[in-house]
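Please go through this protein, sequence plus structure tokens, and consider how the sequence yields the tokens. Keep your notes short.
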Amino acid sequence: MADYTALTRGGASWVPEFVVALAEDKCIGCGRCYKVCPRDVLNLIDSDEDEDEDESAAAKMTLKDIDDCIGCSACGRVCPKNCFTYAPLAV
């Protein structure tokens, strides 16, 4: 099958890659991906850990609605731990 191909504003071909997985075990809960996502794809979950713990262990990211992903890959560009896995949309 062929991949979905879009065009940039300048007319160049572009194959968007959509989020398919998040390595929650690698996530440090920094929230960078949550802040840059232009859609409602991610969810930042507070953990039940002690408040005296390191702040990075206080939250974890989860995938909320991957069907709303637009393939911009902004989340992966800001993730310091490379937690995201992407794939093109097969049409």
The chain has one domain: 6-88. The chain has two helices and six strands.
